[in-house]
Every structure is written in structure tokens, then in C-alpha cells.
Amino acid sequence: MKIIEKDFHISSKSRDQMIDITSQVSDIVGQSGITNGDVIVFCPHTTAAITINENADPSVPHDILLTFSELMPQHRPGYRHGEGNSDAHCKSSLVGCSEQVLIKDGRLNLGTWQGIFFCEFDGPRSRRVLVQVRGE
Ligand code: ZN
Predict the structure, then answer these.
(1) SS3 readout for the chain
(2) In the chain, what percentage of residues exceed pLDDT 90?
């Protein structure tokens, strides 16, 4: 089994933002030469996350972020963390820091409407995404 590790940087533009990183991940898979296996996309940050959801209609990421902001408001009585970004830590844990996608015939085996998103919850910032491609 072959293992390829890569990373890339992205710059978020607002405090909450879902950035479609499907093409970056797909390019890394394509360059790896691995045609059957899987890819792990990992976010090494505590106030950001990785998720898979619809990337056809931009209203979907908008509505996801709207729902998160209602469930986890930025300012809330009872938060203790001094940085003022407790909501971002909560969102990061809820969404999770990685996703795994199967690779079939050299391509990401995503559903028709699925894309991979980097979720920014405490931007704007420069962020890093780690990608590991494994397989044959
Ligand atoms: Zn913090």
C-alpha cells in the first residue's frame, strides 16, 4: 500500500465560512497515482472543521452556518474561555476535524451533490489542511 501526505493553505474571509476544497483534494488524489483506496482530509485547528455536504446550491452552506450560529451563539452567559471564541470551539467539535472519502478508479467517490468543505468558525485567518492518500 502506498501512502502520500500533502497539505495546502487556505485563507478564510469571514468569521464563519464554508470553503469548498473538493478540487484541491481531488488534485492531490490525482497527482498521487493511487487509483483505489481512500483519502483522509484533516483540519489541524481547534476552531475550524471539515465536513461533507451539498456544494451545488450555495444556500446550503449558508443555512448550515445560520443554524450553527443559532444553536451556538458567539456570546453566551456562562462561557469561561477567555478568547471569546467558545462558540467556534463548540462548532469545531460538533462538526469534527476530519473526513474520509473512498477513491475509485482514481477519483473521489462522492455522491452527486457532495463536496468537501473546510469550515471556518473563527476567521478570517490563514489555515492549513492535511491530506493523506492511501491505497494502490
Ligand atoms: Zn479559543
Answers:
(1) CEEEEEEEEEECCCCCEEEECHHHHHHHHHHHCCCCEEEEEECCCCCEEEEEEECCCCHHHHHHHHHHHHHCCCCCCCCCCCCCCHHHHHHHHHHCCEEEEEEECCEECCCCCEEEEEEECCCCCEEEEEEEEEEC
(2) 100
